[in-house]
Design brief:
By secondary structure, the chain is of the alpha+beta class. It is built from 11 helices and 5 strands. A hairpin with a 5-residue loop joins strand 4 and strand 5.
Length: 384
């Protein structure tokens, strides 16, 4: 009997959970994907790189939504069973409500495990791979570098400006400033190129310039001017200066833990010496590593607490007004818990004491909530 009830409850929860998380994720991912279009329009990356990069960020969205989705799915599952009078049948058949509480708690542990796998292993790996795609990709859309009356510096040490773009696709008054031999095919060292007009070749890899000159600065400070009637610059091999160095959220959890261990053992070690260590090279300060590891692990600790808060919906209410509004009350409490976890994690890296408090808050509230539920159901005089 119990196994059948547990399977039914679990099936309803999973159904709600999957529908909610993928619906919310799809909306957020779409909005984020639109914002990432700058990779194509401004930085000139290929659509293939854009699609891969945006797809690899989907796991991060899923991870962020896990606690919130768990809250909604648990509440909807309990309300659905209550609305269909299925809970009343369970209570009258002799099933103690604490068994449902235990079931919700076990489900929350499964969600915690999946959340930890996503945040600690899958996310850093996918985000780091996405970064490597950007780092190793080359510009595919040269016209994106040529914007009318805009200084485009998408490529490091290279600035391009065009005065006007004509309807036939040609450009007037093209200015190019090369600070670091980016265009070594034209001139080595710092150089400036002026052209009265220009156009992009049919294969969109070359910029053809007409009636201009190249001004190159010599080692002795003099300027060498070379005039040309027509010249072609191959821009297809250039890479944008999109941030290519990994951020701390893209570093493996194992590396961050090693960095934390190093900091813990050497509290008096200067930040400069810490950053020289191979495991801490991406941490800007001492707090970064603590905050990042707390983001990956700490938020999971709050999930079982949210599950127990939702279980207060199982308490019998004689007052119909209170009974109808309690779903909003417990949803509000759960949402506040999620908000508190997101806010406090930003301060959890200040010191090891702050980190301890961050974890002790949910761990201390868990047994209190469970004991309160146990005491409440005991006084409802339901048979085990």
């Amino acid at each position: 009997m119990k196994k059948t009830i547990y399977k039914y409850f679990f099936h309803e929860f999973i159904r709600y959970f999957i529908i909610i998380i993928f619906a919310l994720s799809a909306v957020i991912w779409t909005i984020q994907a639109v914002n990432l279009l700058d990779l194509v329009t401004d930085d000139g990356h290929a659509f293939r790189i854009y699609f891969y990069y945006s797809s690899l960020t989907f796991s991060k969205i899923l991870t962020k939504l896990f606690p919130f989705t768990f809250l909604i799915a648990t509440i909807l599952t309990i309300l659905k069973l209550e609305k269909d009078n299925e809970l009343i049948i369970l209570w009258t058949s002799g099933l103690n409500k604490i068994h449902i509480v235990n079931l919700v708690f076990r489900i929350s542990l499964i969600v915690v495990f999946i959340h930890l796998v996503l945040s600690s292993f899958i996310n850093p790996t996918s985000l780091n791979y996405a970064r490597s795609l950007i780092k190793n990709s080359q510009l595919q859309f040269i016209p994106s570098l040529l914007k009318e009356r805009q200084f485009n510096d998408a490529v490091e040490n290279l600035t391009i400006f065009v005065d006007k773009k004509n309807e036939d696709g040609t450009y007037n008054n093209v200015f190019i400033r090369d600070e670091g031999s980016v265009l070594a095919q034209i001139a080595t060292g710092a150089s400036t190129i002026f052209a009265k007009s220009g156009y992009v070749s049919k294969n969109e890899k070359n910029l053809v310039l007409l009636s201009g000159n190249i001004q190159k600065t010599q080692s002795d400070g003099s300027i060498n001017i070379i005039k040309f009637e027509k010249t072609s610059i191959n821009l297809s091999g250039l890479t944008s200066k999109t941030i290519s160095d990994p951020k701390i959220q893209e570093i493996s959890t194992l590396e961050i833990l090693r960095c934390l261990l190093l900091q813990y053992r050497n509290e008096n070690l200067s930040q400069e010496n810490v950053n020289k260590n191979e495991y801490c090279r991406y941490a800007e300060n001492y707090n970064d590593t603590k905050i990042e590891i707390n983001k990956r692990i700490g938020s999971s600790v709050f999930i079982p607490l949210i599950g127990l808060v939702c279980c207060f919906l199982l308490i019998s209410r004689k007052d119909k007004k209170i009974s109808s509004s309690r779903k909003y009350i417990y949803f509000g409490i759960g949402f506040i818990i999620l908000t508190v976890s997101e806010v406090t994690v930003r301060y959890s890296g200040i010191s090891w004491n702050h980190t301890a408090i961050y974890y002790l808050i949910p761990l201390a509230l868990l047994p209190l909530c469970y004991l309160l539920l146990l005491r409440t159901f005991k006084y409802e005089n339901l048979k085990v």
